[in-house]
Amino acid sequence: MLRLLWQRLLWAIPVLWLVLTLTFVLLRLAPGGPFDSERQLAPEIEAQLSAKYQLDKPIIEQYMGYLGRVIRGDLGPSFQYPDQTVNELIAYGLPISATLGVLALFVALLIGLPLGIWSAQHANRPIDYAIGFIAVFGMSVPNFVVAPLLILVLAVYWPLLPVGGWNDGQIQHLVLPVITLAIPFIAYITRLFRSALLDQLQQPFITTARAKGCSERRVLWQHAMRPALLPVVSFLGPATVGLITGSVVIEQIFGLPGLGRYFIQGALSRDYTLVLGVVLLVALLMLIMNLVVDLLYRWLDPRTQEG
Fold first, then answer.
1. How far from 282 is each of 95, 249, 296, CA to CA, in Å?
2. What's the whole-model pTM score?
């Protein structure tokens, strides 16, 4: 276990450095700058702003200065939000996106896993076809279509829930965005788990367990369940990062000040430090989730452990 942790830690350092370097270079190569706008600034004002944020220095000097700040945990000031640092923006936006993401993931697992079991137990029967059709529909319809429909039905025609807003995370403001985020993941988990479970139920060790007199319930829960979860765990690694870092479309539609919304606004306004900070955070979360997935793999399938 400790060896795996050390290996991943050593691997994370060059990965994060590579992500930072490529993002830094690509942002500088993109046309436009952080102070370009429809209203042209006076040359002396633009020069002062460039000097304030050290954009008047050579690229390599800017890069080395930013790299040094990142090593110290300082992601720098935001160009678009001059009164706030990138650390402060992430500290404000990440909990909002993480709350939505964790709740959506919980809902997706709570619904998707039982549906996958039910579908596998009734394979090639009408209920299996119905669940499959609903799952394909959930994967096919984009969330920018689902969200307005939910708002129209549950907030306008049948005013049970608010249209949008955060309002300190009150539960009624979370329901619609969480459902919208969870729907495609419910569909993916259902299909993945159904296929994996059907494959496990056809394995020789399952036939042996049945021949020994094990009930179907015991065969399912004690023999087939854990190995069938492996594809779902693999899917949940990147899926969790995507949910936690927020959905840009969902945050825009429901007016939520999450991390994804900040990222898009920063990209459109060429806020270099904000975009770099969010990209580094996403890369770090991806590395952490990959480690969690590996640890879950070792628990679900002991054959993956080192001898």
1. 14, 17, 21
2. 0.84
